[in-house]
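To whoever is on call:

I kicked off a structure prediction for a single chain this morning and the downstream step that reads the tokens threw a length-mismatch warning. I double-checked the sequence; it's 174 residues and nothing unusual in it as far as I can see. Pasting both halves so you can look.
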Amino acid sequence: MSSRKAAPLRGEFVGLRAVEDRDVPRLAEILALPGVAAWWPGYDLDRVQREMVEPEEDTATFAIEVDGRVIGLIQHWEETDPDYRHAGIDIALDPAWHGRGLGADAVRTVARHLFEERDHHRVTIDPAAHNERAIRSYRRVGFRPVGVMRRYERGADGSWHDGLLMDLLPEELT
């Protein structure tokens, strides 16, 4: 898959569509919120434009919508080497919309797409090991912890933090 625009996807509660130029201000606003910036540091308008509107090769980025309002973003990337073929997901959701099952719905929708339409046998997600809210949400979708990746990512505070590698097989998707 190249960075071409992905077709829209529909979950039970959310709609997912390719990020467009008009979404950049709203996504930059979401990524700057304290409850999001802790996990997604350093996103300004330019970076959102560069990375979300025209993502890297083998990556697709979607705006998450509820009733026509952009409430977050979700992206997936694909490893296309046939011997290691799998996909990964990242998500950021406006904290005002937490606790309603919308993030889990978006993750479930993308995982289903990756299994059924993109023919992947495994999907990964890698939250910060101390991001308990995200980990609970991913478990609801069926993801299982695989292991801790020590000093995996630099946090907003500049120090290295552990990540939790989680994966999901098609038969585990709930």
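Update from on-call: the warning came from a stale cache, not from the record. Cleared it. Sanity check on the structure: The chain has one domain: 9-172.
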